[in-house]
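=== RUN LOG ===
request id: a7f3
mode: sequence -> structure
chains: 1
length: 272
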Amino acid sequence: METTVVKGLRVLEALARSPGDRTLTDLAAECGMSKSNVHRLLRTLEECGYVRRNPDSRTYKATLRLWELGVSIFSRFDLRSYAKPYLKELALVTEETTHLSVFDGEGVLYLDKVDGIHAVRTYVNIGDRAPAYCSSTGKAMLAYLPDETVRRAAGNLKRFTENTVRSLAELRADLELTRQRGYSETRGEYRAGVLGYSTAIRSPSGEVIGAIGVAGPEERMRARDLSTTIEAVLSAGRRIETDLGFHTPAAAEEETPARRKAAGKPRRQAAE
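=== RESULT ===
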């Protein structure tokens, strides 16, 4: 790996995340580099148009060049194309219907799906909507959205089944469990007899991009190894994030439950 490039990106990312201008000393301390090294990198980034120096205060800030690149990439962004291979793989592993969703308004919008192999299966149509508070992809996303959004989503709780969440407090407790585990679970909360697992797709800053999940008849899904199903869901979500550039491949593999267990590592908490 080219260390100069890595160091330059580290400095640029530090500037991009800063609320204001930064001094050379601050950047060197944050990035763990010498001031002379950081100064050389800043000079190069300035010449390339990514950094602007304020000669009066001797501080640095990122320019809109990064924003321009981001907009260019985002204009070509298609979450469905990134997620499709993993939807297919997840359906193959679980033999159940898999789905890709985004949060829209106060609920879930299904962007894509791959049907399971069984004649009796859960049915989701692309373009369908569902309440976030009682769907697996909805809860997976709500767990990482602001509490104001959670309150809005629970503002008019409709009972679809006997298992549908009854109160905002109950929903918050469920979302806390989702954050602790890294995945959501629905047990007949939207449609009776349907068991579903989902995980959120998130950026490094924590922004919710979408969610991927699997759902099927509860009796049949419980007859299989549920830990394998859950791990497959988590792996699909992390690998989508990797393809989006949010993780290195090695980091995505390390985050699967099986690898955490083998290494004796605890699950990541929400604060991380």
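=== NOTES ===
The CA atoms of residues 154 and 168 lie 6 Å apart.
Strands lie at 22-23, 51-54, 59-62, 97-104, 107-114, 129-131, 184-187, 194-202, 208-217.
=== END ===
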